[in-house]
Design brief:
By secondary structure, the chain is of the alpha/beta class. It has five helices and five strands. The chain has a five-stranded parallel β-sheet with strand order 2-1-3-4-5, with helices on both faces. Helix 1 links the parallel strand 1 and strand 2 (28-32). Helix 2 (35-44) runs parallel beside helix 3 (61-71).
Length: 120
């Protein structure tokens, strides 16, 4: 059975790239282009994983992560973001992300990290 993944990413080109690669790996994907709709989708459907950008319109990814964690402690969240400072990574992980990948990213590494998070 294919895993359902939600991509919350406002950059359409990046979201397209992630979607193409993950569909090739057999995942079913849904998308949201802003924090609020991503939060609503993330809490409204039993996704296997959420891929979350930090810099989103409406509500930033850290707040989305915090609110999802308040409702669901077990839903895996992988942050995929251009914020590469150590403080950003630590904050993301401390707020509940299971992994943190910076842009630009390697599609094969992203796939491997997703598989690793889903194995847990």
């Amino acid at each position: 059975m294919a895993e359902d993944i939600l991509i919350i990413e406002d950059d359409e080109e990046i979201a397209d790239l992630v979607e193409i690669h993950l569909k090739d790996l057999g995942y079913r994907l849904d998308r949201a282009a802003d924090g609020l709709s991503g939060l609503e989708k993330g809490l409204g459907y039993p996704y296997s994983l959420i891929i979350l950008d930090l810099m989103l319109p409406g509500m930033d990814g850290l707040e989305v992560c915090r609110r999802i964690r308040a409702k669901d402690k077990n839903l895996p969240i992988l942050m995929l973001t251009s914020k590469s400072e150590e403080l950003d990574k630590v904050l993301g992980l401390e707020l509940g992300a299971d992994d943190y990948v910076t842009k630009p990213f390697n599609a094969r590494e992203l796939g491997a990290r997703i598989r690793a998070v889903l194995r847990r």
